[in-house]
Structures are given as structure tokens and as C-alpha cells.
Write a structure and sequence with these properties.
With 473 residues, this protein is mainly α. It is built from 19 helices and 7 strands.
Length: 473
């Protein structure tokens, strides 16, 4: 059976579009499924970087209580990235249990990236069925799932926002484009370079100054303001992530470690980056990150998820236009079947593509930890094992036990009301964040038992011990 855009249009009854309805149901199903998986990950203390998740949720909670994006997990002060988008979630913290709602909203925003994929594929490939196919592929994409389960990292939200920015750019909707671009820049300063790439892309494709100058000026302004004004003023320390240094002093662009991260999100589909200017130009910052970044972290590459779908759509458009494939492309149903089979192989067989984990059962130690967490008053200040930080983050003062300082004002992690740790040592080795956890924990336990620490053992359960400062509620 031949499926083309005309038939697709005839199947719209009374203005109701079946493909759009199917995509909406898929978005809802994805949101319910992955917000639940994200919550089970939170409940089992399996956060990818628990210090970051705790700092972000604490910053949101503090904003809701009049302290704009303040946190005390990493150090005392504001966050050391440009994360104003987090402040928009602050009203949620007035709810009884905001963490599940935050995870739900993150998941919903990510899932809505299927909408610009659908619209872009429909326009470029000439059929709503192509839009539905690529939109469903977006929701099934393992790289998206991996981002979704990366706790509350703001940069993951750059994926749907950049896709909307690109769709409005392609649709020549300048107002929608500027709104989407400005929202994208609120995610983190690292996407400013990605936004600036709309300038050369517009120069090649549009030759119109109204499309060239705004993204260039917005991208450069956000990057400079973040590095030299916002972060130093908010955190009280110099910016340490993307900064000027001797050209080519850290040549990560020739390092397999850098390209390994690129392939982990794109897999072998990376070849599509070279199929069109629309995909290649946004990808340039990620191919040459080593020139301007002193250190490359995995999350720097998260926006490549958005670039991948731009690459696939324009790559398919180019393949359909090849003369040698005209016969195959004439049958949309046959072409879509071939594409589906290739994408399924891509999911299952690609050796480079990220394979996220979906199952996060609680073990007895997790249950013991939650039982002790319930005994800590909501307003009390707490120091805890790094794994437990996200569960304790909805409070004004929270520290990581035995934290090694590296940024901002120093922390006295013993100046709190409660301490919840495993006296044997951390449940996850992370030497960058804490220093001699076992030695400090053993010392605290010994001094407490000898009545020399100012704390008392309030309760011990399984691996965990809950200390309470004497004389405090």
C-alpha cells in the first residue's frame, strides 16, 4: 500500500489528525513511564551525581523561600553555572512532596521534544506519517532515556528547547524562534555556543541579517555574562568550566575520550551529521570542544541528542532525493518500512550507543536509610552521605559528609543538627567530593561514644547511624 501526504490528509476527520493524536498518547505514556522510573531511581538512592541533584533541588526549594537559587551542598552560595531556568520550578516546592512533581515535569518537557521532531519531519519529508515515525523514534531513543534519568541536570532540557528553536528557524517564525532561543539559553551557559551557531547557518541558508545577528548576539552575550558576571557574583568564585586558555593546550578534539562521548549519544548515526549544513553546523562545537573547554564532562554532549534528530531528518530528505533511490522512495510505505528496520537495528546492534538502565529496586540498606530520614525534622540542618543528599535536599542547610572543598566558601559540615552516615565509609566512592570519609566517620563515632563530640547517637539501623546534636530540637 502506498502512503503519501495526500492520503494522510484525507484521513483527517473534522480537523482531527490521527497521527497527532497517536503522538500525544505516546508522549503521555512516555511521561508516565519515565517519571515513574526516575522516581524509583530517586527512591533507591541511585542518582548519577547525587551532589548535583541535591544542589539543584535545594536551589529550587530555596528560591521558593526567597533565597534565589542558593545551595549549601557544593559550597555555600549560588550555583556555579547559569541555571536561571531552575527558578521557574520554585512554586512546585510549596507542594507536600515536590520531588516526584519535578521529575514528572522534567520528563514531560523532554517528551515534548517529539512535537518539533514531528513537525520538522512532516515538513521536510512531506508526510504526517514520517513525522509520527520520527516522533516515536525520538521517544524510543536510548540516549533520551539516559538524559531523562540523569536526575535534575538542567542541561537535559536543552534538547526539546533547541528542537523547538530549530523548528521555528526552519518555519521562518522569527518571534517563536527568539522565544525558544531565549528559553534555551536559560538552561546553562554551555548552550550559548550552540545558539550562536544559528548565525553561520542563517548566513548560509537565509542571507538575512534579522536571522543572523540575534542568535549570535544572544549566544555571545549569555556566555560572557555567565562567565564574568553571573557565576562569580552568585557563587563567590571564578568561573571554572569554559574559559580562555592557551590555544590547543588541551587538544581533546583529537582524543578518543572526546569522540567516545559523541558516539555514545549518536552511535553510528553520527555519519548523518555530515549530510546537511542544518546538522553539521550545530555539531561543530561538540566536535571541537577541546579548543575552548579545559575539561570535558559527559553532560556537555547532551544537546547532541537534539542535533541527532535534525541530522536524521535532513539525512533522510537527502537520501529520498537521490536519483539512484527514486524507485524505492516513490513508495512511502516501503521506504518507511526500511527506515523502521534500520532504526530497530540501530537500537539493538549499535556498539557505541548508550544503553541506559531502567530497573532501580530498593535494597534493605535503602529502606533503612529512608526509615532514618523520616526521623529528621524538615527544617533541621543535616550532613549526610553523598548518596542520601537528594532525599534530604528540601531544606535551607545541607552538607556532604567529609566534603573536600574546591569552590566558593568553605563548609563546616559538623555544624548541623543531624548527621546521617555509614560509619564504615561512603556507599559510593567519589574522592573528588569527600576527603577521608572512613577516617572522619570513625573519629566521629568514637568521640560520640566517649561523649566528646557534642553529638549523640539517636538511632542506628542496618548500615546507617543517625547522630543528633545535643541541646537542639
Amino acid at each position: 500500500m502506498v502512503i503519501d501526504s495526500k492520503i494522510g490528509e484525507k484521513r483527517r476527520v473534522g480537523g482531527w489528525d490521527r497521527t497527532g493524536a497517536i503522538l500525544a498518547v505516546a508522549i503521555l505514556a512516555y511521561t508516565l513511564t519515565f517519571s515513574w522510573i526516575a522516581y524509583t531511581k530517586f527512591r533507591s538512592f541511585a542518582s548519577q551525581v547525587p551532589q548535583d541533584m541535591a544542589a539543584h533541588s535545594q536551589a529550587i526549594w530555596n528560591t521558593s523561600h526567597g533565597r534565589f537559587l542558593q545551595q549549601t551542598v557544593l559550597y555555600i552560595g549560588g550555583l556555579n553555572h547559569f541555571y536561571p531556568l531552575l527558578a521557574l520550578f520554585a512554586p512546585i516546592c510549596r507542594l507536600a512532596n515536590p520531588i516526584p512533581v519535578l521529575l514528572f515535569l522534567y520528563t514531560l518537557i523532554l517528551a515534548c521534544g517529539a512535537v518539533p521532531v514531528y513537525l520538522l519531519a512532516k515538513d521536510q519529508l512531506g508526510s504526517r506519517h514520517w513525522g509520527l515515525l520520527l516522533g516515536l523514534f525520538y521517544l524510543c531513543y536510548p540516549g533520551l532515556h539516559y538524559l531523562n534519568l540523569w536526575d535534575l541536570k538542567p542541561i537535559v532540557l536543552s534538547v526539546p528547547l533547541f528542537l523547538f528553536s530549530f523548528y521555528f528557524w526552519q518555519a521562518k517564525d522569527l518571534r517563536g524562534f527568539l522565544i525558544a532561543v531565549l528559553l534555551t539559553t536559560l538552561v546553562t551557559e554551555q548552550v550559548a555556543i550552540l545558539i550562536a551557531m544559528f548565525a553561520p547557518l542563517s548566513w548560509i541558508k537565509k542571507r538575512d541579517r534579522s536571522w543572523i545577528l540575534p542568535p549570535l548576539l544572544i549566544g555571545v552575550a549569555i556566555l560572557l555574562i555567565s562567565m564574568y558576571l553571573y557565576v562569580p557574583l552568585a557563587s563567590g568564585a571564578p568561573y571554572k568550566h569554559i574559559r580562555d586558555h592557551s590555544f590547543f593546550s588541551h587538544l581533546h578534539l583529537l582524543s578518543w575520550d572526546s569522540y567516545r562521548r559523541v558516539f555514545s549519544f549518536l552511535g553510528l548515526a553520527a555519519v548523518f551529521l555530515f549530510a546537511s549544513w542544518e546538522a553539521f553546523l550545530p555539531a561543530i562545537p561538540y566536535l571541537f570542544f577541546g579548543i575552548f573547554a579545559t575539561r570535558i564532562y559527559a553532560h556537555y554532549y547532551f544537546p547532541l541528542t537534539a542535533v541527532l534528530f535534525i541530522a536524521l531528518i535532513y539525512g533522510l530528505k537527502r537520501i529520498k532525493g537521490e536519483k539512484a533511490l527514486k524507485g524505492l522512495a516513490a513508495s512511502s510505505g516501503r521506504t518507511m518500512l526500511v527506515v523502521v528496520l534500520i532504526l530497530l537495528d540501530f537500537f539493538v546492534l549499535d556498539p557505541f550507543l548508550i544503553k541506559p538502565r531502567y530497573d532501580y529496586p530498593m535494597n534493605p540498606s535503602d529502606q533503612d536509610a529512608w526509615a532514618l530520614i523520616q526521623r529528621i525534622p524538615r527544617g533541621a540542618s543535616v550532613t549526610a552521605d553523598p548518596r542520601l543528599l537528594p532525599a534530604l535536599s528540601l531544606r535551607e542547610k545541607l552538607h556532604e559528609f567529609s566534603r573536600k572543598e574546591y569552590h566558593g566558601e568553605k563548609i563546616d559540615y559538623l555544624n548541623v543538627d543531624y548527621i546521617l552516615i555509614d560509619p564504615r565509609g561512603p556507599h559510593r566512592d567519589n574522592r573528588f567530593h569527600h576527603e577521608d570519609y572512613p577516617g572522619n566517620a570513625r573519629r566521629l563515632m568514637e568521640e560520640t561514644l566517649r561523649d566528646r563530640s557534642g553529638f549523640e547517637v539517636l538511632s542506628a539501623q542496618g548500615d546507617w547511624v543517625l547522630f543528633h546534636r545535643k541541646g537542639r530540637p
